Amino acid sequence: MSAVISWIRSVVLAALFFTVWNYQTLQNGVDELWAWLLQQRLFTTVYFETWFTMWCYLWILYIPFKMNKFRYFDKYKIDKTVTFKAPSDPEMVLEMANYAATFGILDTFTVKKYVGVEPDVLVEKQKFWFQTTRALPEYAPSVFQLVYQLILSLIIYDALFFLVHFSLHKNAWLYKHIHAEHHDHPCMHSRVTNQLTLSERIILVLVANQSLKMVYAHPLTRTIFVPVFTAMLIENHSGFDVPISISKIVPFGLLGGSRYHYAHHMQGSTNYQPFFKYFDILLQRSRHKRQ
User: Fold this and answer.
1) How far apart are the first and last CA of the chain?
2) What is the rounded distance in angstroms from the CA atom of residue 233 to the CA atom of residue 262?
3) Tens digits of residue pLDDT in 147-176
4) Which of 170, 126, 177, 133 is nearest to 45 (CA)?
5) pTM: predicted TM-score of the whole model, two decimal places
6) DSSP string spanning 144-206?
7) Confidence class of residue 229 from pLDDT cuts 50, 70 and 90?
8) Residue 130 DSSP label
9) Could you tell me what percent of the chain has a pLDDT over 70?
10) Distance CA 150, CA 217 (A)
């Protein structure tokens, strides 16, 4: 399987070279994509990001449950004794309704401020307490902006949420009232990703949103961020440790992955970072020094 990983990494590297070599062609494609998106009513509505997050979550969520139906994937289960049961349609409708209700309300009464939008446009929208459409920038981001904004926003989110997550575990009141529900499960499965209290769900989204704001992310970057971010979170909670997962493809062991996060859910006193591992390593070294 290491040969497959090497092949995937080679493809990614080749794609990077292709991007550099054909930069203008790719930029033209991004420009055309953005111009097309601006003409789509669904994309310009204030509810797009909430809807798109739900859509990505539902599609990616079912991948581990589909894997469970094939015995071939049993060897990749972290806990070999577990059989995952896919949620019923009413259960998913209720889960998505709770999510949509929370963030749909915020979408309705919040003026979304994106980089590249003229200030006077935002001032005009603030005159109305009820929002239906987003004020979006006229021009697309550069390919370079897309790449660095996406990577940097994930790194920043990981650092910020580590601080939040660590605090939720170290403060008994916060853990009991905000975070305990996320750890209340008989086995690890992909739906645990969204098994959150209302408070923690809002915190998670606000931290992700702040991470994007800190890199001045273009709305197109934000759109790409959603499926990448969702896939990484669901992988962490999937209960499978697949050899060709995102955490395996990224070199040098930078990402923790599903087995790493599984250990956190089983022990609760380690592996607080959602994606990377460097803060956890520093924390462990600090503990060893004190001992």
Assistant:
1) 39
2) 12
3) 999 999 999 999 999 999 999 999 999 999
4) 133
5) 0.93
6) HHHHHHHHHHHHHHHHHHHHHHHHHHHSHHHIIIIIGGGG--SS--GGGGG---HHHHHHHHH
7) very high
8) S
9) 99
10) 8
The angle formed by the CA atoms of residues 154, 229 and 130, to the nearest 5 degrees, is 100
Please check whether residue 220 is in contact with residue 30, taking contact to mean a CB–CB distance below 8 angstroms.
yes
Q: How far is CA 205 from the centre of its chain?
A: 9
Q: What is the spatial distance between Cα 208 and Cα 56, in angstroms, rounded to a whole number?
A: 16
Neighbours of 31 (CB within 10 A): 15
The C-alpha R_g of the chain, in whole angstroms, comes to: 20
Q: Which two tokens stand for residue 39?
A: 């003409």
Q: How many residues does the chain have?
A: 291
For 109-130, the pLDDT digits (tens) are 999 999 999 999 988 998 888 8
CA 203 to chain centre: 13
Tell me how far apart the alpha carbons of residues 77 and 84 are, in angstroms, rounded to a whole number.
Answer: 10
The tally of CA atoms less than 13 A away on the side-chain side of residue 169 is: 16
Question: Which pLDDT value is given to residue 15?
Answer: 86
Query: Angle 181-184-186 (CA atoms, 0-180°, nearest 5)?
Result: 155
- Which among 190, 177, 154 has a CA at the least distance from the CA of 68? 190
